[in-house]
Amino acid sequence: MTTSSITAEVPRQRGEGAEGPVLEVRDLHVEFKTREGVVKAVNGVNYSVSSGETLAVLGESGSGKSVTAQAIMGILDSPPGRVSKGEILFQGRDILQLPESERRKLRGPKMAMIFQDALSALNPVFSVGNQLGEMFRVHQGMSKKDAKAKSIELMERVKIPAARSRVNDYPHQFSGGMRQRIMIAMALALEPDLIIADEPTTALDVTVQAQVMDLLADLQREYNMGLILITHDLGVVADVADKIAVMYAGRIVEQAPIHELYKRPAHPYTRGLLDSIPRLDQKGQELYAIKGLPPNLLKTPSGCAFNPRCPKAQDICRTEVPALLPVTERDGTELAGRGSACHFREEQLHG
Amino acid sequence: MSELTKSTAGAGPAQTAPAAPAEPAIARVTQWGEIRHRFLANKLAVIGLVLVALLFLVAIFAPLLSPHDPYAQDLTNTLQGPGGDHLLGTDALGRDQLSRILYGSRIAVVVGLASIFLACVIGIAVGALAGYFGRGTDSVLMRIADVFFAFPLLIGAIVIIIVMGRGVTPVIISLAVFSWPTVSRLLRSSILSVREADYVLAARALGANTRRIILRHILPNSIAAVMAYAAFNVGGAIVAEASLSFLGVGVSPEVPEWGNMLAAAKDFMGVKDYLWTYPSIAIVLTVLGFVFVGDGLRDALDPKLR
Q1: Nearest beta carbon to residue B221 from set A116, A125, A134
Q2: What share of chain A is helix, strand, coil (3-state, %, to 5)?
């Protein structure tokens, strides 16, 4: 018990000591070279996360949200993937400039990632205790016995019942929710400053989703970590995230404090996403869907990438790429933390 | 059958008993326990295991089991048929056939195991590098493997043996040199799929280095095919070794070895058939044993492959 209270102290101090955000992504571009040509998966993404803050990154499949995360972690498949431009500042240092061996040392103790499908993200041939303990054995040189004790402690921390007797079980012997808890435990093991959760609840059923999400939020508060929550589900993030960035075709099209986005979206795409959530009070009506398909990243449409699907597209949308600009109230006061990449953001915001 | 299931069910909890003594009611099934159970439920595999076990016992205790010195010539008793003092008869130099067959198992076991082991060491190293790094490394290593693969085994082996001289070691080396490409190809192809698995990405995301990823996360998940191949092909290696001896380029002709015995027996075919039938039976049983074990191992390691 004493060890856990000590370890709980450390991240708090660490969080206070750090100046500025834990992570800042500046103008990040990622491209993939394929046979058909260069796929521009991420085209100038900017965002930042502070300790104790949760940023939700929302987007459809292929919007570049996972690729951004992989670029931050440094686990892009490269080649073919490549960061072609931009900076990733982690605790003030541009980690893209670091040699691979230095970056590897960051992964685990400083930043960690939670994957979507815990069954495939856990090695099937080792027991979960063995895999959890590996974190301590490898990064901290702990003995097998101590590592096992720590694994049990971690499993209890993520509320796995009967942790002591289940520590030698294999991943396939756990239920989906329990497996995801193990993934979370593994990411948390070394108390990193930043956790990226890539659709952590997508593979789970709805009731378990809420439990896992709550657990993640609790632990994040407890350790005062920065959390990037990647998702395509607006419902999942509402209660957990502080702010949200909506991605489309490798760009952030809108960012806002979480509740403001739900109240007043400033981009037609976000509007469309919100309208396509089934609602109880609209029972019997046809559900809204954004028409068309996400763009082919080999040749994104000219102008605003969303223009072919946008109900409000004008001529300017087909020629000029809108920048991510601050949005203002009717009286001209700037809304803090909000931005939209739409030529008609004000009209969208104010209806 | 019922005995087998009983024994495996009994072994399960006994193995993990110290870990969870409080709850003996729940028999924990470990992964190896499961594999063992599947293996033992396969009748052919058990037969194979018995044959292989017999071979090993014979090889170890050949001096105790043999009624005569396998080298001792008795020129007054040549070409005696089976029966009497010489249970399986004597050869053209009056040497006891049974003793020579029993001693022959030693060379078979040593060459079979050692050559496959060596082939696996080379093949796993090459296959793992090619599969994990892909691209240029893959092309270069696989083209080298192709060259060895395309080379006729017997010709290649004869060349190596001519250069190195006769003996057990050159035979082992020459067999290994021409069988590692299969191992490396098998491993490479399963690594190609395992490499893309999420747990490999997860391991990278948690700071594992390349060596750890290959040795701990990729190899254990892709080694099953190689293990089955290895067990399966010990028999093949034994046949190849006997062929080399039969052709007169294996171990020295006076050494009791199955290929040598067949080579000596070929002059008496149709006249003294017991000279070639018994060594042949020994070879057939040995190969069958390893093939059954290999098959059983493959099914036990990955039931989906069936």
Answers
A1: A125
A2: 40, 25, 35
Q: Any CB–CB contact under 8 A between A139 and chain B?
A: yes
Task: Determine the length of chain A.
Answer: 351
ipTM, two decimals: 0.74
- The reported pTM is 0.73
Domain annotation covers residue A250 = no
User: CB B201 to CB A75 under 8 A?
Assistant: yes
> Distance from CA of residue A169 to its chain's centroid?
29
| DSSP reduced 3-state for B92 | coil
DSSP assignment letter at A313: -
Q: What is the CATH classification number for the domain harbouring A151? A: 3.40.50.300
Our CA-based measurement puts residue B127 at a distance from the nearest CA of chain A, in whole angstroms, of 20
Which residue's structure tokens are 């502080």?
A242
Q: A138 touching B, CB under 8 A? A: yes
- Give the closest of B198, B206, B216 to A108, CB-based: B206
**Bridge partners (DSSP) listed for residue A48:** A24
Question: Does domain B2-6+31-305 bear CATH number 3.60.40.10?
Answer: no
**Residues of chain B with C-beta less than 8 angstroms from the C-beta of A108:** 206-207
Per-residue pLDDT tens for B31-70? Answer: 677 888 888 888 999 999 999 999 999 999 999 998 889 9
